[in-house]
Amino acid sequence: MKDHTQRQLRQELLATGASAAEIKKLLPIASTLSLLKGSTRPATNGSQKTGRWLNRRTSLTLAASGVAVGICIIISQTVLPTSPLYPVQKLSDSIAVYMHPRYRASIMMKRARQVHQLVADHAGSPQVLATLTDYTREADAYKSLPHANYAAFEYCKTNLQQAATIAPPRVRQAIANSLQSLETT
């Protein structure tokens, strides 16, 4: 092994925390390895090209996966609770509220719209009532914030009152109870 290479290896071993005794043992092994390799130049065989290709492929796969997840999240924002993407919507909404608590008003208004739309689409009562529960939970949390917006509540109230006028009796009563509980708290 050339003196320059030996000095460089010694410095690298010192930098990694090797003791002088360890360096003394490792330098002869490194000399033997360079003899086994047959040359002091790094190998330029096809495995390096394959490694680069795999790294690019992995990067492209990760990028494509990220884009796909992003598109899924964007699409999920417009779905109703009857959609398979609704859990994605709820998860992304939770993350958004965590990052920016004022976003809760938008979620509350979205849930009120969803209740109205479900009633208008004649969705089953269990689905409407579950969405109404989600709305009530969001509204309670939003109402407790110091920056609660009266206009957001009015928007929700209007949506829910419109839904109640066309809802079956059980759902109509649940909407009335939700509106009343929010006014008294």
The biggest beta sheet is recorded as: none
Proportion in β-strands? under 5%
Radius of gyration over C-alpha positions, nearest whole angstrom = 32 Å
Would you list the SSEs in sequence order as H and E?
Answer: HHHHHHHH
Shape: elongated
Number of strands: 0
Structural class: mainly alpha
End-to-end Cα distance, whole Å, is 82 Å
Mean pLDDT: 85
Helix content: over 70%
Number of helices: 8
Q: Tell me the domain tally.
A: 3
Low-confidence stretches: none
Can you characterise this structure?
It is a single chain. The chain has three domains: 40 residues, no CATH class; 32 residues; 108 residues. Helices cover 78% and strands 0% of the residues. The chain is an all-alpha fold and 185 residues long. It starts with a helix and ends with a helix. The radius of gyration is 32 Å and the shape is elongated. The mean pLDDT is 85. The chain is built from eight helices and no strands.
